[in-house]
Write a structure and sequence with these properties.
By secondary structure, the chain is mainly alpha-helical. It is built from 5 helices and no strands. It has helices at residues 14-38, 42-85, 95-101, 106-119, 123-129.
Amino acid sequence: MKNQKFKKHSRYVPGFHFLTSRMIIASAVVAIILLRHDGFYHTTFFDLLASLSLGSLFFYTRQFATGYQDRIIRAGENFRSYRLTGKELDQRFTKNQIVALRFTHDEEYADLIQKTIKENLHPKDIKQAIKQCRADYHRIWLRCAEMPKELKLVPIAKSFDG
């Protein structure tokens, strides 16, 4: 299994992040051009309305998904902090600091939490301070072909039953 590196923490899905967004922008531009060229008709207005609706749908779909993801990460890291240190996460942590801390291996977690609070580390600094990465192998795979062959579905945290 390949180790995760600092540079690989973000993931882009080209079909969603690049292709779909550009198609929606292109449809809005074409709709505006048609509206100006042909005048204000039901069809030209509908084209503009449809492209703006698609743009809003694209934007809010991404916002809602990342919002839920952040809540799940916060809950998981709060539990992890309690499991490893006996305390919940400090309220001074920002959302981005908590997201960065999730890649910290259990052995260095408590020290990095203290350092982050003491020095108010930027999320990028937190990720760079990690000596041993706790990789995220539970990503959403679009196709089975993308999934590494040697991937074993092993939980990140210890199981509850032993």
